[in-house]
Predict the structure of Aste57867_384 protein.
Amino acid sequence: MWQTFAVLAVMVFVAMLVVVALRRFPLPADATMAPEPSSFLITFRAALLLLYCVSLAGFTGLPTSWVMYTVWNFTLQAIYYGWAIAYQWRHRHSRASQCMTKEGRILSMFFDVCFSVSFLVCLVFWTVVLPSNPAIDLNWNTCLQHAGNVVFLVVEFAFNGRSVRASSLGYVLLLPLVYGILSWIGHETWRKGFWPYQFLDVSAPLSPAWYLGVCLVHSVFLFGAIGLTKLKWRVRPVSVVDAVEDVHTPKDNYV
């Protein structure tokens, strides 16, 4: 069917966008991070890590449920919280903004992806997935993974020392691309014709538009998160306001 070739073309196009984004928006060499000495923050992260592990291990149906994009996103968030706890503990004596290490840059990119994608997952679930399948059980775990996690990430964002940057655009686009490719491969092999979401079905007439639209909307939420970052550093104490200098939008970046 023509839709199959069109979806392939969309995937190639998005892959090209990933390469362009990674080259066009590099992380500034002098990127800094505000200190995170807060005992509340590390306690908050530890509590969430425990909650997420209980959710994933006891109520999500792993490993089968890893076919769902929601569970991908939720798992990445759990990894972020665990990593952030370790990073915060190692730098607990820092009291001033400092240039980020390689690990710090990767962790910040990781947060950017989790933070921006969580809004999209929440929106798609409540406006597309649930209306098309009203039989979905809205238990506490479903609500946690499709709404509660967004609230928790907003709190994390408000208290951490990180700035969402345009340099994460390539990775934000890469995540749905990889998911789409693996879902298609799974459909043709071990999943035996199963699509996790109806709009992923490459035989549907609107599938090329869905694939392209979902990938591009990821970037919209990233730049929305960048806007929230600018707001964040306007209301945070002056002592850490220098971090706002690292919030780069496309016009601020350089090749």
Summary: The helical segments are 2-24, 39-59, 69-90, 102-132, 140-159, 169-188, 207-235. The beta strands are 32-33, 98-99. The radius of gyration is 19 Å. Confidence is low (pLDDT under 50) at residues 238-255.
